Amino acid sequence: MTGMQQKPFVHRGCLLAPSAMRTVILHKSNKTICRSRPAVRTGSFFMIIAPGLMLPEAWGNSMTKAEKEQKRKETDARREFVNDAARTVGETLLTLLPGYGKSTEFRLRVKNENRYYTFIRYGSSLWIQIFRSGDIDVVLKEACHYDTKFRIVHYEEASKAPDDALADLRDDAYMLIHDFMHSDWHTMMDYMSHYEEGKDWRTMYGEFRSDFPDGIC
Asked: How many domains does the chain contain in total?
């Protein structure tokens, strides 16, 4: 570009000024290699920035020490809530097992810090999905109905009062697991199959429990 006027250009919102000696950032094998030399074109992607400007790695790591500590605390609190939620569901199941003799399969699967409880009877299943995000979903399945899915815990709200959220989870888990073990799941799905996202699932489920307070086996 000898004899030609070099113009600044913008990369990712930063104004980059021209310079005779530039920093060339080569991206190769997902690694960034920085070196100072005149700009050259290679087979790898490169960009030119003026000496002294922040490199891309720095653009994404501008958190202060206090912010990093706060982020760590939030991550630890979320992980603790997920573990406590999984323990709550497991303990709830154990309280319902004494005296129970029907053919039922119980599973716990852990994947990428997510916890998936599955309760299975012939033609029916109940899923309690505890995600690493802290959110908790329930999926109701029955051979003659479409699957019904709804969220019972939103972590953003639960994080404000985790003990209360876990207490509510214990009540909900007890109700759902108990009814799955002792009620006619097909009849329950006649009610819950009409659930639509955004509605209060407890209202619809409450209608089933109101009509069949003792369950129907």
From this structure: 2
